[in-house]
Write a structure and sequence with these properties.
With 157 residues, the chain is mainly α. The chain has helices spanning 2-17, 23-38, 41-72, 77-93, 98-115, 118-156.
Length: 157
């Protein structure tokens, strides 16, 4: 069960930077499955609680950081909604790269239509993309911390 859990967690870590997989959720579910299979004990309960907190923090960072970056750059909520809609469409139309490309295109088009200023639209788009990059790094860090908590659980228990 240790090897299977490690593989699922590794896939989850990849999912924190590739928007195809639910990264933190996979790492957490792998930890939960390990506990259900091998037994939690006191160490397991503490470890899963820590993993839950880390997953929550990473998920919040994944939402807050891009929104804050977009808001600071002056992107309108309507542009962000257009970005979200085109990101979903891009996900299905162009596998792997369609999600970020569609999102960026949607934000740019929304800001271009709203302001009529290509430079301003690009600044808002670039800032939002940087926010998404920071969010991916924060989620990766949370995922790595979750895996390390699980490793400590396996070693101690």
């Amino acid at each position: 069960m240790v090897a299977l859990t490690a593989v699922v967690m590794a896939v989850g870590l990849v999912g924190t930077v590739l928007p195809i997989l639910p990264g933190l959720a996979l790492v957490w579910v792998a930890g939960l499955a390990y506990g259900l299979s091998e037994g939690f004990g006191t160490v397991g309960v503490v470890a899963l609680a820590a993993m839950t907190g880390l997953a929550a923090a990473g998920t919040v960072a994944g939402i807050v950081l891009p929104r804050r970056a977009a808001g600071t750059a002056g992107a309108a909520p309507a542009s962000l909604w257009l970005g979200a809609a085109l990101a979903v469409a891009g996900f299905f139309l162009v596998p792997v790269v369609g999600l970020p490309l569609g999102g960026a295109l949607g934000i740019y088009v929304g800001e271009q239509l709203r302001t009529g200023d290509a430079r301003r639209a690009w600044r808002a788009t670039a800032a939002t993309l940087k926010g998404f990059g920071l969010a991916a790094l924060a989620q990766l860090a949370a995922g790595v911390a979750m895996v390390l908590v699980w490793v400590a659980w396996v070693v101690v228990a």
